[in-house]
Write a structure and sequence with these properties.
The chain has 395 residues and is of the alpha/beta class. The protein has 12 helices and 14 strands. The protein has helices spanning 4-14, 66-77, 87-97, 112-127, 160-168, 193-204, 224-227, 254-257, 276-290, 295-308, 342-354, 375-392, and strands at 33-37, 40-43, 48-51, 105-109, 131-135, 152-155, 172-177, 207-211, 234-237, 248-252, 314-318, 321-325, 357-358, 367-368. Strands 4-10-9-8-7-5-6 form a 7-stranded mixed β-sheet, with helices on both faces. Strand 2 (40-43) and strand 3 form a beta hairpin. The structure holds 4'-deoxy-4'-aminopyridoxal-5'-phosphate. 4'-deoxy-4'-aminopyridoxal-5'-phosphate binds at residues 56, 111-113, 116, 139-141, 178, 182-183, 211, 213-214, 238, 248. Residues 56, 111-113, 116, 139-141, 178, 182-183, 211, 213-214, 238, 248 line the site of 4'-deoxy-4'-aminopyridoxal-5'-phosphate.
Length: 395
């Protein structure tokens, strides 16, 4: 039988924990998604859900945007890949860099993990320093530079004082930060935080890496930092720039980027870098987004937040993304997220799944909205969710 339960029984024997990325697992077994269309997905058990996971962020136009599908097909039909430069990679790079003031060169890589890894390597290479500073609960992929090690230190998000103290040692090559935290739930920067990051990194000769793998092209057409008047040294983007296919990039000013081979001597290479089909998908997505008013996405997000606002949880949101923390006050950093009741969130998730709404299974992940969602979806699903939250929290 090919239902989710029996599929998971098979998968458990061959994949660690039964899955190929930890967040895909939830108790007692994940729903095996067999297809998606616009804002909906269908699972192997015949259930249809409104999808607010959206591949964990990339699918801002929904599951099956016709122009993107056409571009993917036409690109693959033209030859799957070449291992040589293409015209479209130039077009996509120019489109992305055209939205950025802080970056004038870019390199494409297949994943956000690789983008942050190489941005950090570039900072280490350029500054000749050994240490990296990141934020507690910040996520930048699963490579050794950002997983606990002797050269990695962590401070709280929104903590300007600790940032100043740490950076004053002038031992750090880079401070890497998501401008809006998106992997401990959504935590927005306090007024003045990103400005202080810019000033402190500048003062101490530390490379400021804005990890915009989630926020880039989601909150606006371009970078969240730049939209807010902040100009980092290096930026990493991913997810949306590939329109659902594997594509990410690190970008920055010429002086830094010229260190990368073959312009400079920092080795960086990849068989699948700027894969033509991913580039075609990303180009088609970004061309579409360029002519799209993000205000519609803002409105949907505000509407969802409005429904949840008096349900007993605390709601954080930015355009196109949202978190409902099961606690009475909003966390302002990764450690404060511990006060939210994760079990309560999971109960809400399970109840919503039964009602045909696919939310992220973990409170750490974000609820995402797409241009394929309608106000009627959001009205129905988030008034339902508010009811389930009240019931789970016993209000
Ligand atoms: N940076 C951030 C901010 C992310 O959210 C993620 C993934 N969720 C990554 C980097 C890693 O990207 P990928 O999963 O494409 O390797």
């Amino acid at each position: 039988m090919n239902n989710s339960r029996s599929l998971f029984r098979r998968a458990r024997r061959i994949f660690p924990g039964g899955v190929n990325s930890p967040v895909r697992y939830f108790r007692p077994y994940p729903a095996y998604i067999v297809s998606g269309e616009a804002q909906r997905v269908r699972d192997a058990d015949g259930n249809i859900y409104t999808d607010y996971v959206l591949g964990y962020g990339p699918l801002i136009l929904g599951h099956t945007p016709a122009p993107v599908l056409r571009s993917i097909y036409m690109s693959a039909r033209n030859g799957i890949m070449f291992g040589a430069p293409t015209v479209q990679e130039i077009e996509l790079a120019e489109l992305i860099l055209g939205t950025c003031r802080s970056a004038d060169m870019i390199r494409f890589v297949p994943s956000g993990s690789e983008a942050t890894m190489h941005a950090l390597r570039l900072a280490l290479h350029h500054t000749r320093r050994k240490k990296i500073l990141k934020v507690k609960g910040g996520y930048h992929g699963s490579h050794p530079l950002v997983i606990s090690n002797e050269n990695l230190s962590e401070i709280e998000f929104n903590d300007i004082e600790s940032l100043g103290t740490e950076l004053s040692t002038r031992e750090y090559a880079a401070f890497i930060v998501e401008p809006v935290m998106g992997n401990s739930g959504l935590i927005s920067p306090r007024e003045g935080y990103l400005k202080a990051v810019r000033e402190e990194t500048e003062r101490t000769g530390t490379v400021f890496i804005a990890d915009e793998v989630i926020t880039g092209f989601r909150t606006c057409f371009g970078l969240y930092t730049e939209r807010n008047g902040i100009f980092p040294d290096l930026v990493t983007v991913g997810k949306i720039i590939g329109g659902g296919l594997p594509l990410a990039a690190f970008a920055g000013d010429r002086n830094l980027m010229r260190n990368v081979r073959p312009a400079g001597d920092m080795m960086q290479a990849g068989t699948y870098s700027a894969h033509p089909v991913s580039v075609a998908s990303g180009l088609s997505t970004l061309k579409r987004l360029k002519n799209t008013n993000y205000e519609r996405l803002s409105e949907l997000t505000r509407m969802a937040a409005g429904f949840l606002s008096d349900s007993g949880c605390s709601v954080a949101f930015e355009t196109g993304m949202l978190s409902a923390f099961m606690c009475s006050t909003l966390p302002s950093n990764g450690s404060e997220v511990a006060r939210a009741d994760r079990q309560a969130y999971f109960s809400v998730f399970r109840r919503m799944l039964k009602k045909g709404v696919y939310l992220p299974p973990s409170q750490d992940e974000l609820v995402f909205f797409s241009f394929a969602h309608h106000a009627s979806d959001v009205r129905r699903d988030f008034s339902l969710m508010a009811g389930e939250i009240r019931s789970v929290l016993g209000l």
